[in-house]
Structures are given as C-alpha cells and as structure tokens.
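INFO batch 0412 | record 1 of 1 | parsing
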Amino acid sequence: MAEALLRLDLPHRIDLAIELLAPGKAPLAIAEAVATVGQREPEHLNGRLVEPLLGLLGSDDPFLSAGAATALAAFRDAGVVTRLGTLAGNAAQPIQQRLAAVDALALNSERRDVVGELIELLSSSEPAVVSRVVESLQSVSRVDYRRDVEAWRVWWDAKEQLTDADWLRDRLDLAVRQNQSLRTELNGWRKRHETTHAVTSERIAVLLRQVYQLSPQQARDALLRQWLADDLEAYRLGAMRLVREQVSEGKPPGDEVRRAIMDCFSDPSAPVRTAALQIIGGLQVPADAPEVLRLLISENDPIARQTALRVLGRLGNPVALESLIAEIGAPDTPTDCVREAAIALGVLYSAAKVDSASVKTAIEPLRSRFSAAAADDVRLKEALLSAMAQIGEPAFAPEFDAYLSSEWPELVLAAIRGIEVIGATDQLDRLMAHLSHADARVRQLACIAVGKLGSEPAHLEALVGRLNPDVEVNEGVRDAAWASFRVLLNKQKSTDRPHWISRLSHRPDRQIALYEELIAKLAASGNGGGETLNEARRDLADVLLSQSRFAEAFPHVQELWRASESGEPATRRVAGLNLVRAGMGGERLDRVRALIESVCGAVDSDEGFRQQMTDIVLARFETEDAAERSSLVTLAGELAGVSPDCFAADWSERLGKVVERLADAPQPVP
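INFO prediction complete | emitting tokens
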C-alpha cells in the first residue's frame, strides 16, 4: 500500500507520505516503501521526504531508526550525503541521532563522497561518533587503523586520487572479497548447525531406542507409530532407524507399522522419505512397487529419487518397467537418476519375467542415452551398458563390440557380459586376447565367456596359461579358467582329452580328478574305451606314482598289467615295473613277493629290466620310519626267497646290506 502511494501520479502523494511519517501514523511502512521504491524506481522519490526521514534517525524504536537510515540511503541526490554528514557532526544534536546518521552514510560506502564525509567526521570531538565512523571505514577499506586519524587520512589521500573507473574497480573488488568472507562465515555457521543437528539427532535416536527396549513388547508397535507421526523430524528418523535395524535382523514390521512407514512417502522431509524407501526396499515385497511409483511422480529431491529408483529394482515387479524406461529416455533426467534407473532396469530384466514387447521398448532409450552420455562419465555408461547386457538383445551388439576395447575396465566387463549373453562367438578371438588383460576382473570374466562360447582346441589352449600359478597370480582368475577348462574339455573328443589333461602338470590334483572322470566314462561306454582308456590309465598311474599315492595307483596299474598281456614286450615290462612300484609303495607288503614273482615270470626280462626291478624294490627300504622296521625285516626275508634271476647281478649283495642295516637299527620303544 505504501509503495503504491509513492508511485501514484497525484500532486498530493508526497504530502500524504510526509503526513504518514509523523509519529503515531505509519512512519516505518513509509520508510520501508521509500527504501524499496528508491532501489527500483528512484524517479518516484522526492527531496521533501528527506527532512522527516532525518527526524526519525535515532528514534527510540531501533527498527524505525534503521528503516529511516535505509530510506535515506536510497536517495542519490537532494544533498542527502552532505546533510547526513552535517547531522552526524552537529554536537547540538542527540548522540543517538548522530550515530544513526553515520550508519545511514555507511550504507552507501561504495560512493566516494560518502567515504569523504566519513573521513571528515574522524575530526569529531565526540568519541562515540569517531568509534562508529572507524567501524564504518574498516568495512569499506580492508585495513584497520583504529583511531589513528592521520593513518586514515593518508589512506584516503591515495584513494581520492583514483579515477572514477579505478575507484569503482576498487569498490567492486572490496564487494567481492566481502561476499567471499560472508560466504565463508555462512559455511562455518552451516557446518556448525549441521554438526549440532547431527549430534542432537543421534542423541534422540539413542533415547528412542532405550525407551523402545524398556517398553513392554505389546506396546512397542504403538510407540513406533507415534514416533513416525511426530512433528519432530528426528523422532521420525529415529523410529525409521529402529525399524531398519529389525529388518536387517530378519524381523519385518507388523502391518500397522508398515503402513505408517508407507505413509511417510508423503513426508515433507526428504531424509524421512528416503529412510522409508530404504525400509520398503529391504522388505522386497513386489506388491509395494505401485506405492513407490506414485512417490516417484512428484519426488524432486535427488537422493530420495535415486533411492526410489533403486528400490524399484529390488522389488522385482515388472510394473515398474515403463517408468524406469521413461526415466532413462527423458533428456532432462539427471545422470545419477538415469544411472539408478538403468541398474534397476537390468535387475528387473534378469530377475523378473518380462515379455518381449517390454524388451523392445527399452532398446532405443538405452542406446540413445548411452550415445549421449559424456565419454568420461564411466559410472553412467557402465550402468547403461550393464543393463543392455542383462537384457541381452542382439540389437546391443554394436555397443558391446565397440566397448570391448575400452580403456575403462568397468566398460570392458559390461561388454564381455553382453557378448556372452547374446552368444557372439565371432568375438572369441578378442575375448581370448583379454585373458592377459591388466585388470584381473577382466581376465576372470573373459575366462568365463571363453568357456561358454568356445569349443575349439585353440580356446582350450588359451585357458591353459591362466591355470598356471606361475603365469596367473590371481586365484579368482585361475578358478574361472579351471571351470571353463572343464566345460571345454567335455566338448572335445575322448581321444583328445588325455593330451589336454596332461597339460596340467602344475596341478596334479586336478589332473587326477579329470583322468578319473574320463576313465569312468570310457569304462562305462559300450566299446570298453579301447586304447584311449589305456592311455588315460597310464597317464593317471604316472601322476599318482609321482605323487607317491601308491594305493590309489594300484588298481589302474593292475588293469594296465592285464591289458599288456597281448601287447609289445616293452609295454609289458613297463606295466610290470609299475605294478611292482605300486605294490612296494602300498601297505600290503605281505603280497609283494607273489607280485614280483608273477611279473618276473610273465615278461621277457633283460638286464635293464632287472636293474630297474632291483632299484624299485630296494628303494622301499630307504625309509627311516622305525614303526615299519618289523614289516621291512619280514619283507627282506621274503625277498631273499625270490629267484635272483628277477634282479640285477648285485642283488644279493645289496639285499644283504639292507638286512645288516635293519639288524643294526635301534629297536623301537614299546
């Protein structure tokens, strides 16, 4: 109303305004109107208003005095600066009016004439005026000369020589620095407020927990509902924390508490809405998706909106697909929200039953947003490319192909997943190249993809290197390579498998497992396994014997011994020696003599065979195990009865030394 009065195109408007500035009328309203209109439309001000406004300075009402000062500062002419200076320096005027005049001058400190008036007022005989002037000058100068009048005059002499342009630049620089200082101070206050708020909220949460735990079980849900509806945000958040803790322990809230949490979806506090969403997401009830979707329509807080999108993925309800796709496709959607929507979309496609029509509607928004994403926004690109991989549409093949060679491992991982899902076997060479990638995650996923898509010996060859700990230091990669190696091995012909199993010499335990599987499969086949079965048994026997697993090797070398009956003499001799080696290493030493005599009687021996037989048999006596002494003495006695024709020429001499050593050995303590 007062502002409208000043803008009226009527001759008596100023008279009316002056009348209203009188005590008991509306002086503060008019003063405020003068200040506002003067800032925006100074042409509506009139110099006749200055005198009554000067009279209001120093009023007993501090608000009225400050309003008059602000109004006077809006005048750019009418000699206001000079009149304020005169008033401030007039010893006959009340001190409060004089100080208010100084304050009014200070409001226009960017003006050179105002600063000049303040400098002149330093000569005042009134200490209070000088102090107020010094305070004003300190705020406009960035120096602090206190009450050193001469220092202030020297400072002013330098400033007074500035051109108008330089003076304005100086004032602008001062304003910028003051703004920075105020901003720093504001940030400090904000941080202190946030710290105090956090501490207070934590204390409230602790107290709520204590009250909750001390309350009877049957009263606890009512307490939660009461706190969830409380006007104080800290109470609502404290109740949310209690519920969230229970959910994490596998204790879902009751129906009434759950409904109260859902009601918080419309809470005015974004942190409360976010906490409610987190709880609903933790419960993972698909039927809650429509409620979350309703919140999403009007949610503007970035954290709460991202949480809602994330929760829609966790709920696993396909009803959210359309909204998630729209979120990704909208050009003005913030990147963090697009990222969460893409992640949720991928989760839904991988976990829920989605019809083909819905799949098609996601293709173009994903591809468009992916191509529009900044090249260095790896987190967004990863989320979008991962969603494409989880959907697994061949239409995304160009993106998978392009980013299989990305410099960012996260994008390479997503591309590999996509290639694996769509079955792009034409990319196998590039996948195998990634088996030596610098990032272990890429190597591991490449191993898995090669195992799924590969089939050729070259693909097996590529995995062999990743199985060797001297080559691949990461255990996760080796495990992935092993799983894929087994898958590809089963795709090879049975006749080729022994060769590939033999390549695992650095892992005899895995060799043994694979040989045993192959032998069992061949033995159960209709043709009896043929030479491949014998080859696998020979290889397995060699590995077992090299690992001193004689008892496990014995059945296999026994089968090889039987199979060698119709074979070449050399093969028969090798089989016989292995049979003796397995028997000598086992625990059944009582049957060793019969075994040796059986082998010697069934082969065409030569000096080399007899020498090997001698070395194999006598090696058993090299043990220092005192517990076996009695058995070894018995065995030596049995061997003395075997025909010397089975052994080398120095057999009797070497066996005699063994017997002597056994006789001289200390007896075991009973």
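INFO post-check: The first helix runs from residue 2 to 7.
INFO record closed
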